[in-house]
Structures are given as C-alpha cells and as structure tokens.
Amino acid sequence: MNSLHTSSPSGLPPGLPRIAVLATGGTIAGEAGDAAKTSGYKAGVVGVDKLLDAVPSLSQVARIHAEQVASIDSKDMTPTLWATLCARVNALLALDDIDGVVITHGTDTLEETAYLLHLTVKSDKPVVLTAAMRPSTALSADGPLNLLNAVTVAASKASWKQGALVAFNNQIHSGRDVVKTSTYAVDAFRSPEGGALGWVQDGQLEYQRTVVRPHTLQTPFQIAADLPTVEIVASYAGVSRVAVDALVAAGVKGLVIAGTGNGSIHSTLQQAVADAAKQGVVVVRSSRVGSGHVMRNGAAPDDTLGSVTAGSLNPYKSRVLLMLALAAGTPPKYMQSVFDTY
Ligand code: ASP
Questions:
Q1: Best of 37, 69, 108 to mutate for ligand 1, by most ligand atoms within 8 A of CB?
Q2: Which phi and psi angles does 58 have, rounded to 5°?
Q3: CATH tag for 230-341 (out of 3.30.830.10, 2.10.260.10, 3.40.50.40, 3.40.718.10)
Q4: pLDDT tens by residue, 112-147
C-alpha cells in the first residue's frame, strides 16, 4: 500500500480529506510594494506556506500536504515543467492517503496546463487548478478565497471522475473548456461554449452539468518533456506565408492555424498550409474568435488542404492536443477523429 510520510498538524477534525497543494507560482503568489498596485508586480515569489497561512479556515476543510513545485510566472511555462508537474500529480494521487490535488498556477497559461492535465492525469481523484488576478499583497486580493474554494472542490466526492477542474471566482470549470477572457477582471475565466460546470461558495458546491468527452484514465495520452514541436500561426488581413514556410523548414511536426471567423484562412496562407500538409506536417484549423466551433469543410476545404478542424478548442488548447496526439504516434489519417473525440 502506498502512503505519504508527512506529519499531520495536531488538533484537526478527524476524517477530513487529505489534499495536496502544489504551488507553481503566478499572480496568486505575486508581491507588489504597494497594496494599491494590481499590475507591475512580480509573480511567483510568495511560497506555498505563506499562501496557506493566509487562509486559516483551510484547516476546517482538509488536511493539507503542501509542495512548492515551481515559482514561475506562468507566461514562462514549459513542457519540461508540465512533465514534472504531471508526474508529481500522478504520484500523489496514486497514494491511498491523498484524496485530491490543488495546483496554484498563473492565469496566463492556466487554460493550457488545465487541458494538458485533463488529458494526462491518470486518476479518478480530483485535480483542481486555481489562480488569482490580483497579487497576494493587493487590496481585495482574490487568491485566498480562490484557494479555499479550490480545496473545497478537491475535497468533495462530487469532483471525482470530472478530469482537471478550475475553481475560480466561485465557479467550477472543466479544464477542457475554460479560457482566460480578461486581462484584469477578477471574473477572468469562462467556458465559452458550455459554460461553467457549477459553483462553489462558503463551503458548499454544486455541479450543474458533467464532463462528456473522455479524459484522464480514458485517454491514451502521456506527457513527455520532449513533446513534438507544434507552433501557432494566425491568419489576418495581408498575412504572408513567410511564417508557415519558415516553421516547416525548421522541422515543426504540427501547425495550428488561428483562423479568422469559422477558422477561415487567407488564400495566401491556404497554399502554404496545403504545401505544409504535403510535407507531412499536421495542420489544425482553429479560430482566433474566442468562442464557437470550427466545422470541417466549413470555411475552408479541409479535404483539399489536408487540414484537420479543432471543433471548439481554441488555438492554444488545440496545440496541446496536437502535441500529445503526435507524441502518442497518432497517424495523420486518425487526427480528425482525435479532435472530434477529446
Ligand atoms: N503573469 C501571471 C502568470 O500567469 C498572471 C497571473 O497569474 O494572473 O503567472
């Protein structure tokens, strides 16, 4: 039997779930010299112990095992850190005395990490990411309540088998769907097509819909530090084919096109995409719009271009899936079915 050898603080209510809090940095761990400052601070500098100390009522919700996995601004997230984080999550969730994991993260790439973990964590136990829009030193910092709510979500049996979740601003989102939609607002996260899965407030939570697409144990995907190179190119008025040609020459394995509208691609870029696909690069057609889905042979002839459509995944989430699918050795002819499934 696997177990975790860390001491539990005394005096805790017996029988509380045991939740591992893995800190990676971000604004939730940010510090500014001035409490009135909500921008221009340094992200990822406050340690996990201090984050937990700011939320004394956590001890009423769970027994906490804390680890500092990284201390970065999430704009600097890397596949290597993804691999480290995912391995740690999987190792902790395999322990009998860990009931769930909470990850504190920066908001900038949270939607990418959440989807990556949704596809690569191998457990039914809850994995809940949270973050903050205001640094820990700010007036009305949102991090402490987000952290308390994330632990509440991770400690709930109702959160099992839902894949990676994001608890933010009293809402619970699926890691597949959630995206950052504001540069400054504390309600920065939305799930544009399906909406939030539910809510969490004052120790209570409710799920109003469940996750339909396969995730975690139902996927074949594994994270590796050396994921195949996939880059993103946008289509816009007057775009040239220079970027696509340069990336193909550099040996990329996949390209995601952030197309206009329903994933439409400028005629200049369409020729470049067709040429890239002929050379074995897998091209996924997504949209830069921010909501909605991209239909096969809708705004571009995928059968002719050799492209795959992303459905409701935005370009950044499409890149995550394409990297994992390429790493899993998915033949190009099955790539559309991968995007239709996950
Ligand atoms: N740049 C920060 C980060 O992603 C932003 C945040 O956390 O809100 O780490």
A1: 108
A2: -55, -30
A3: 3.40.50.40
A4: 999 999 999 999 999 999 999 999 999 999 999 999
